Amino acid sequence: MAMHKTAAQAVGASALAALVLTACGGDENGSGDADQEMLNNAGTLQVCSDVPYPPFEYYDAEGEVVGFDIDIAEAIAESLDVELEIVQTGFEGIQSGVALDSNTCDLAISGMTITEERAGNMLFSEPYLDDNLGLLAATDADVASLEDLEGLTVGVQTETTGADYATEAGYDVRDYPDSGLLIQGLESGQVDAAIGNISILGYQAGESDTAEFIEEIDTGEQLGIAAQSENTELIDAVNEALAEMDSSGEMQELEDSWFREGDTPEEGDAEGEASEEPTEDAATEDEGDE
After folding, report:
1. Which are the contacts of 197, defined by CB distance < 8 A and separation ≥ 6?
2. Neighbours of 207 (CB within 10 A)
3. Shortest CA distance to 288 belongs to which of 178, 127, 175?
4. 3-state DSSP helix/strand/coil percent for the chain, to nearest 5?
5. Hey, is 12 helix, strand or coil?
6. CB of 178 within 8 A of CB of 289?
7. Which of 29, 214, 215, 224 has an alpha carbon 20 to 30 Å from 146's alpha carbon atom?
8. Structurally, what CATH architecture does the domain formed by 4-129+222-272 represent?
9. pLDDT attached to residue 29
10. Taken in order 52, 265, 193, 128, is the CA torsion positive or negative?
11. Residue 202 vs residues 67, 193, 199: alpha-carbon distances, Å
12. Cα 44 from Cα 194, distance rounded (Å)
């Protein structure tokens, strides 16, 4: 696999518009010239990812960024014969296209659903995962289906398709800036249920003693990898790498490992910081994930 910088760069969403990373020149042998056309910095693939969002991207017990998306990013970097750098970026900057347009990274790989609005701001790869929405509820909330949500508080992650669905359905919605705080809000009783991508909620249900997976919501969602709208060469290279992973069986192995077998690295605190219960303010910050 390609080398992976373990210290992810933290990039605040408010600073994204002002942050521009300029490209470096090629190496002495000129081998960076081809990379330079696709990448901000020759020899390095920079990937924006909103950490944590398990099992797609999160910190393990050693503080390393791991996950399904990270394994895919490593495979793409290896196919390009470059080093991988994960750039920690708020999801608002990712899904709006600001992170890509400001050259914060070359690719956005962060469990992001392909939507018509997002496709107007960035160039998507072929889908790499089918991912409907799902309903997760507290075990003591007496919820058996979506029809039982009337009068209850439903947690969602800001700027996600789950948030859009819950709002359009008219539920009493409470927003959280990331999936970790959303799940903590559910477990602490701030909300009675949560709506989000089934890959995330199914994973969380398997890890929780106080919440259970209730229902899959068929939305036909698919996840994609994004680049700047004009960077067709990089997306073509990504699609080639994804096709190779499919044909070799590597993609299926990764899906089984991260979503079905359950034998994944234990989650650690973000960059060594102690985890905390979500506060009232944390539930309304203007950031989001997937």
Report:
1. 111, 113, 131, 132, 133, 134, 160, 161, 162, 221, 290
2. 13
3. 178
4. 35, 25, 40
5. coil
6. yes
7. 224
8. 3-Layer(aba) Sandwich (3.40)
9. 42
10. positive
11. 15, 13, 5
12. 38
> In terms of Cα–Cα distance, which of 198, 186, 185 is closest to 141?
186
What residue spans in the chain does CATH classification 3.40.190.10 cover? Answer: 4-129+222-272, 132-220
Residue whose structure tokens are 């477990």: 187
How many other β-carbons are positioned within 10 Å of the β-carbon of residue 185?
Answer: 21
From 18-22, 70-74, 231-235, 285-289, the region with the lowest mean pLDDT: 18-22
| Tokens found for residue 83 | 């080093």
Per DSSP bridges, beta strands 133-138 and 193-197 are antiparallel
Which residues are within 8 A (CB) of 9 and not within 5 positions of it... i.e. 6 or more apart? 85, 86, 87, 88
Tell me, what's the pLDDT at 19?
A: 31
